[in-house]
Amino acid sequence: KDVLKNFEASITKLKSLDLIEIDAASNRGIDEIRELRERIKLAPSSSPYKIFIIDEVHMLTAEAFNAFLRTLEEPPSHAIFILATTEPHKIPATALSRCQRFDFLPLTILEMVIRLKKIAKAERIRFDEDGLRMIAAAASGVMMDAISILDQLSSSGRKISSSLIQETLGVVPERATLKIFEALVKKDLNSGFMALSKIKKKGCALSFWRCE
Prior knowledge:
Helices cover about 50% and strands about 10% of the residues. The chain is mainly α.
């Protein structure tokens, strides 16, 4: 149990030599897979398992997948493969049939705010709820992006607030958006254009399109 706890801690802190990440977008050929098969044979250095994360695995060539199938089907007892992709439909059925599939959905805004609040408190970053909610909305369900935005904003030394986020990210204020929708519902063009003008003056980019 102690070995597994130490292994988990080293992975969480990204300090494990037995956690190997491979970018399939730039290592997609059969030669790279052959090299990987040789590395797999090596025993873990300090952990019970050797974990290989192959990111964007759908980018592997057909030949590379074919060369990888036998290893995927009968891996060494110390090897664990994690095949990560945003396009599972591009993975050959022969490879999918040898894997357990886990679908990870985007986090909700509430879930992201809870995590951001925990991080902000641990790092002693001043914040308000609206600010964290706007960060979560801007990150579109990707926690890594939300943490990056929080880190970027915290470097200013200012409180993480809605006004700071609007200034830094050019996010349209919620009230302004609501005014535009209200004008649309009431078919009040003057109010709608006035709201758009105020948003434009604050430096937010506007995109217009026409439906044919």
